[in-house]
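Purpose: get a first structural picture of the assembly so the mutagenesis plan has something to point at.
Setup: two entries, given in the order below. No constraints added.
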Amino acid sequence: MLQSFKLAVNSIWSNKMRSFLTMLGIIIGVAAVIVLISIVSAYMGSIIDSFTSMGANKINVFARNMNSRHITENDMYEFFDEHAEWFDGISPSISVTSTVKKGNESLDQTTVTGVSEDYLKIDGSDIQYGRGIIYSDVAGRSTVCVIGQYVASELFDSAEASLGESLKINGRPFTVVGVLEMKDEDSFEEGGSDDFIWIPYTVAITMARNSFINSWVLTSSDTDYTTEIVQGLKDMLFKHFKSTNFYNVNAMNSIIKELNTQVGTLSVMLGGIAGISLLVAGIGVMNIMLVSVTERTREIGIRKAVGARQGVIMQQFVIEAAVTSMLGGIIGIILGAIVTKSIGAAMDIDAYPTLAAVLISFSVSVGIGLIFGYLPAKRAAMLNPIDALRVD
Amino acid sequence: MFGFGKDKTIESIKKKIDPNLPLIEMKHIYKIYITGSEQVYANDDVNLTINRGEFVAIVGKSGSGKSTLMNIIGALDKPTSGDYYLGGVNTAHMSDDELAIIRNQMIGFIFQQYNLLSKLNLLENVELPLLYAGVKSSEREKLALENLEKVGLREKYKNKPSQLSGGQQQRVSIARALAGHPSLILADEPTGALDSRTSREVLNFLKQLHEEGNTVVIITHDNSIAVEAKRVVRIKDGKINFDGTSEEYASII
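Result (structure tokens, whole complex):
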């Protein structure tokens, strides 16, 4: 056995160029499998992460309210109170198309949203200065607002100095009562994640053209309730609308679950496609081994003449094929890891070769050597010593 | 794993070998090749007995069937029919692997083309039969060096065959043939590729091996080589048509 390894290494070493070219197929195949699987799972992982950071326990309700069929604020709050154990918070989410002004400064892309007192908790944001929207603001329809870092930096001297100052939304004056912590350094720009203003939803209704609340955000107390909540909301909405066409309930948790399944499928599919290149590489190994057997017919004849049995010859060639593709596999894994890391760095995601990808591609490459080496080895072992010795 | 190392098959075949029986006993050996619709009798009812310690030349022109006979004697091939007892063991119905063991344990080959492995050095070449016999590495090296010493090439044990002259290469192949202490030394045209001076050297070597008690069989087409042996067997058209001492043979040619 050890002897066969020694022979295999010698043979590979004495045909460096040919062995390398044979390995190249395996190297590229293995590297491709590793890079594709690792990059896809890292990239999708980062997408899932960003969904999760948006709140895995969020449930969005959209309704197309009409005068004849609609859902009211009271209906929603009643449902919320009935199933208090399921929920953590509830808030309408009323988008107001608006221009924000302070003196001569104006912002056009700022997202102005009418929210409830629960919204700070639902959004998962933190107050930097001042306070959030509170119940009395909502009940008293106060013209107060909570602003994002970008708004504060554009319209005021500093975040702290903006407290108590006023700004105009569609010409209506609002007093700044709170500033939120920065959400995302990378999108600190107009229309970015820090360019927003929250106002009490009761005020927002009066500013929006629609007198109904079409969009709600709820948070569950536990993601385990997600399925029941979604079903409960749908049942309730159906009672009001008598048709499934006018409303929509989305749970972030189910979206993430769905994404996860799709990522898995995608990885397997891409890995499979890259795996085809491994199959091609395996045929390359077989081809070279057949050439090697033909070239070494005389050697095989001599070995058999002095007493090598079929098994030994067989072993020698199978091990040679397996060692070739194993070396190719190892180089491929290293190459794949390097490429994965550099692509990951370029795409700014944390990509690393997964253990599963490494193990699978390594065992596949050794397996290819064994399988595709078998036929040439069998041919070598079955050679008749007399015929083999007669070859020049 | 399979192949290397002593195993039961080797031991059971060795056990059957009877040192009191003739080394070679061929009974009604036929080797028939079918080419198209024609049957060619390469060996046609060959009966031959060679005892231990004999020095025999098998002589014949090309196409006489002597190479076929040598393949059967060397257990490289099986007869179409007939029985071949090597040390009392009938090899006529053995499998490929069993024949490999017989060759490994009982026969030392010396070929016209030397048949050394070009990628291995002299030591590794001589070790080869011992490797397949499952001899331990340290023991292999010792035996191989002893035999290289015997043919006067111990110092060159690290060289590759291509670095040697033809005569030296043939001496390496003799060392390889001797390494496993075979019962039979089978030389196929051992001087065919050599000039007359080195041929003489190799012949003297074979004679010396015979004097040391080895059984030596030479296959040759050359009568002048054949008469160097003690006994000559001539093959013609696949049949033995002369079997006698070399003196008798010298008198008829």
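The interface with chain A takes residues 1-4, 71, 74, 76-77, 96-97, 100-101, 103-105, 109, 111, 115-117, 119, 128-129, 131-133, 176, 180 of chain B (CB under 8 Å).
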